[in-house]
Each structure stands twice: as structure tokens, then as C-alpha cells.
Amino acid sequence: MPSPQFDLLTMGRSSIDLYANDIGVPFVDIRSFAAYVGGSPTNIAVGARRLGLRTALLTAVGEDPVGDFILHFLNQEGVDTRYIPRKTSARSSAVLLGIEKERVPLVFYRNNAADIQLTIDDVLAAPIANSRAFEFAGTNLSRDPSRTATIFAVEQARAAGLCVFFDLDLRADQWHDPRAFGVAVRAILPLVDIAFGTEEEILAAMLTDPAQLTISGSQISAPQVTGNLDEAIQALLALGPQALVVKRGAQGCAVYPKNAPPVEAPGFPVEVLNVLGAGDAFASGFIYGVLKGWDWYKSARMGNACGAIVVTRHGCANFMAYEEEALQFVQRHGGW
Question: Are residues 245 and 195 in contact, defined by beta-carbon separation less than 8 angstroms?
Fold first, then answer.
């Protein structure tokens, strides 16, 4: 049989990201923004493409200049955009982001977002059977028709024998109830091979008591969640995935394989400019390693390297690492 055309197909959010050019100032004092492209699965598709993987993206944009902006960038990057529908009744998404000293306030503009209008028909038109791996994000599940389309896509990917990656991607303000996030995560995990999440996202996936969740102002997309992390990890693994990857920022990550001891992979010391996009860069590097046939540790180190590179830069997709750059970065910092 011929080999698949794509190494990775990702599905979910896309947006124009407007990052403050004024670093370290309060949001109200921002004078100008730089325009980039973002959205978790979009970032991952770009990051994986820069690492040499053949990638396609299933998102949706409006019939508007922002959609033109997103598609133009993706085409320049070599991400296949043939399967991205334009939704004439919806709008391409936007995100405004500040970069303050100890936090990154952000504001989503996703009312009537085009990518949340993805349908089962859009999935049927996508090259799932012609890909090696499929990746999707938790925000896809926040409302229909994207929720149903994503579940259908995961079913199709699983049936076709693809490796299914799931980024928990909690954006609390995109859910009508934060507990609904956990319900959706737990429902989809039996169809997932490898899941990624921060400690807060993993705890949120097991959230039943709203008192465990703290959301404040512009940090609504980065909630603080309390609970027993080890119990949450084991509960999620029991639902089916072969591994759960816990992203820990500067500390690196830990891979929890099913029925095996965790694998700790240290991070890389760098001077941080902007933490947004680090998790997506990590996922790109980790998926790259898995598809190369690397073990958990080496794949995780590659993910950590990609994450460490992007946090020194201003934005997300536009600043993802290239393959040789990431490999050389690892070698300069002690190797595998």
C-alpha cells in the first residue's frame, strides 16, 4: 500500500493573534500590537511542519480578511490548507494578548467563531485516512457542531489506525460550565492514544466541585485548580490512553505510560519572554519524536526543546522552531 500523504492532521482553533509590542506594561497602557497566527492545533501544525513533518490542518475561517491572513501564512509555511472551509455565516477568530511581567492577559474574540462551525461533512472531506496521526484540542468540544464533528473525526482516525493525540487545551471562558470540560475530556479519552495537559488542566478534567476552581479577570483562560494530581492522572489513564503527558513549564514534563513508571524529562534553562505557545511547541516536538519512533524520554526532550525556544520569542506559530535549530539546541544544552 502507498504511504500516507500526511504525517499529521490537526483539527481545531485558528485565529489572528495580536501581541502587545509593549512588553511588561499593563494592558491599559499598550500602544501597539504585532499580528501573528495562533490557535492550538494551528500552532501545532505549523510547528510540526517546521520540524519536517507533512502536515494538514482542519480548521475553518470566515469569508473575511482575517481568514485571508491566516490562510496566507499557513500556505507560506507549507501547511496544507485545502481542507479548511470558509464559513460565510461566521467570523475568523481573534485574540488580543498583553505581555506583563508575571502574567499574560488575553482576550478571546470568538463570538460566532468559524472554527467552532466545523461539521461532520467537513471531517468527511478531510484526509484522515491519508494521514499517520491525528491531533485535536479540548476547545473543539466546548460546543456544537464542532463537538460532534470532532468526536466523529476521532472515531474515523481510530478506525483508520492513526495515532490519536489530544491536547486538553482548557480555555475556561469557552465553556458554559467548567465542569463540562471534564465531562467532555473523560468521554473522549477512550478513543485517544496520547494526551497532553498541564497540571491545572488534568485536575480540571476531574473537576466536580466549582469551589476547586479559581478564575480571576483576564486570567480566565488559565484557571487555578486544586485537587490530588496523582489520583487525577491515574483516573484519566484508566479511561484508555496509552500515555498521559504532564507539561510542567520550566521543569520540563513527565510522561505517564499506562501500567509503567513515569518518565521524567527535564526542561532547558532559558530567559522567558512569553509563555504562550510553549505547550503547542512542546506538542509539535513530542509528536515529531513519537512519529520518528523515539522513546518517551527522547520525544519529551525534543518537546521541551521546542517549548524552550518559543518562550524566548514574541508569539506562537510564527516563531516555532525548525528541525535543525531544535536538534542543535538540544546538543548545546547537554544532549538527550
Answer: yes
